[in-house]
Structures are given as C-alpha cells and as structure tokens.
Amino acid sequence: MLAQLSGTVEPGRVLVVAGPNGSGKSTLLNILAGVIRPSRGEVRYRQDEGDIPRARWFAHLGVAAPDMAVYDELTAVENLMFFARLRGLEARLDSIGALLEELGLAAREHGRYVGTYSSGMKQRVKLAQAVIHEPGVLLLDEPSSNLDTAGHDAVARLVDRFRSRAAVAVATNDPREMAWGDARIELAL
Amino acid sequence: MRASSLLSESLAVLGKELTSELRSRVALNAVGLFALTTLIAVAYQIGPYKIEEADRPHLLSALLWIILFFGATSGLARVFVKEEDARTAKTLRLAARPLAVFFGKLGFNLILLLGLESLVVPLYCALMSYTVESVAGLALVMACGAVAMAASSTMVAAIIARASGSGTLFAILTVPLALPLLVVLIQGTKAAATSAALAAVFPALRAIVSLAGVTLVAAVYLFPVVWHD
Hints:
heterodimer, A: five-stranded parallel β-sheet, 7 helices, about 15% strand, globular, B: mainly alpha
C-alpha cells in the first residue's frame, strides 16, 4: 500500500487525498501524523530550513479523524482548555468560545458535557481541538462527516482560513471537500 | 503563546483525569468496592482472634498488602484502557508529549492509591485489631509503597492498553514487577508494627525507594516507545 508515493506540501496549499474505501487514505494521514510508522520511506516536517524532530511534531500538527474523540465527561470548553494547556497555550475562554462558534457550536451548548452532544456537535469540538494551537500542518480525515450543510460550510471556511498559513491535507471522497484542494492524490486499490 | 513545561502539561493531564473520574467514578467505585469487600471478607473469616500472637505482625501485614494490591489493580489498570475504549487515546497522543501523559496518569494513580490506603488501613487496623508501634514508619512505608506501586501499575497499564487490554498480559507483566515490591512492603509494614523505632523500617524503605526509582527511570525511557509504537 502507498508504494511510490512521494511529494512535498508547502504552507498555503490544500492537498486532497481521494480514493475508494480501503485504498489507504486514512493510513496515509496516520503516517503523516506520525501515528503509524511506514514500513519504508519517511515523513519529514521542515521549519526554518531545519527538520522538526519527531518528538515535537505534536506541537506543529493539528489532526481530526473519525477514529479520534474528545472527552465525554468534559464540556466543550473544558475539552478545549485541556488541549490548549497540553499545547502550552493560555486557555482563554473568549478565544475558545469564538473558535467553537466559528465551527457552528452555539454559545449555549459550550457548557454541556460532550457526552450529551450529537455526533455532529462532537465533530465540531474535535475539529476545534485540531486547530486550537493554529498548527502549521492540518490533517483532516473526512472532516465533514456527521455534519449538516451549515457544518460543512463552517469546515470549508476553516480550511480557507488555514489555506494561507498552513499545509493542509484532507482525506475524503466527498465531492464538496475535494473542491477545496489545490492538488489531489488519487489512491487506487 | 507561552513556553510550555512538562510540569504544567502533566498537571493538565492530572486535572483532566481527576475531573473525569469525579464525574464518572468508574475507578473509585471499582477500587473502593473491591477493597472493602476483600477487607470485610478477610475480617469476617479470619477475624482478630484466630491468629497466634507471635504470627500476627507478619500475617496481618501480608493480608493488608494483599487487600491493598488487589483493590488497587482493579482500578489502576484501566487508566490507559479507558482512553483506548473511548477513542481519546489517539487525540491525546497527537496533542501531548508522552512523558506529560505518563506523569499525569501516574499522579492520578498515586492519588487513587493514597486515597485507598487512607480508607483501608485505619479500617483494617480497627477490624483486625492490628496494632502498629511506629505510625510514622507505617506512613512512610505506605507513601513510598504507593509511589512504587503507582509507577509500576501505570507502566503496565500503558502496555496492556496497547495490547488491546489483555487481562492475561496484565497478570504476566504485573507478577515480576509487583512480587519483589510486595515482599519488601510486607517487611516494612511488619517492621513498623513490631518496633517503635523509625529506623526499623529503613532497610525495607531503601528497597522500596530503589524499586520505585528503577521503575520510574525505566518508565521514562520505555513509556514514549510504548505510547507511540
């Protein structure tokens, strides 16, 4: 799987990874995120002409994928404050609230436990944790899954906001999400 | 953005663990119920008067640690498995440095163990008429024992979580780590029960601290590998 795959993604570009189920879209994003080590080849992230050590990738990457979740026992705000603190950020309530509203989660919902949310609302919180630290690399696996049209539009605006400042990779088969890309990789079975 | 530190990140993980636990009470219920049930069963069946006076310090020290150990393992082992079950492990893995996760989880397990000891030890002393000559010595053994047991349990919990929560693997990995620790903990507790001199617990205490140190150093090197690979 993924043999002969090579390339560079610069900040300011959105790469779409498409292909049928089982072709390796999520596997590729997991390799890019450092969750899976490739059996051959390597992934490198560069900043200021130097490679970012693998142990520091977490500070530069934002990832949202279907096999990830946020904490059901915490509220949306508590979840984001936790992930902000992990990333060494000042956890400010106003900026967290603004981010959640940008993703379409109304202010009245911010104090509810995530366990009581619908799957679409959870997806919004998951996307918020991926971008709370304004990452230089954003990896999104099926980012609009479980989202309604308004949610899809919110994600499109988010991707647009990051287009100018980050390298973005989106794994998808949704034609609306494919339209976000500046470049596309079509994986085959 | 401010400079992040391992301490503040570990405290963030610890805070999240405590908040989640206070709301779900999964580990608290498991540890508390298991420990109290075992304690009552032991007290009812063995009782304070069925052991020869000469054998009491050794047997009662051993029984106390058996109760604490089995009570603790019912909750401590879940600290990473629950992240895998809830699909939050990957989110955490991608957001935090491994050692912050380890020390945060270790802190939670330590608090859980110290809470368990605070509940079980006085009850055990009362129910089993277990007299302790050196309370300070016992407190030292309990505190250092909690650190050592929390360190080994946290490391083993991380390994079994990566092995799909295998209970068999937990048993296999826990025995070599827990056995020497339990032996010195029982010796230290017995020493505190029989001698009023604080120095009586020092030999056992040195062994407990050494085991805790070795486990912690090994965990600092091994945990990032276990957590990521």
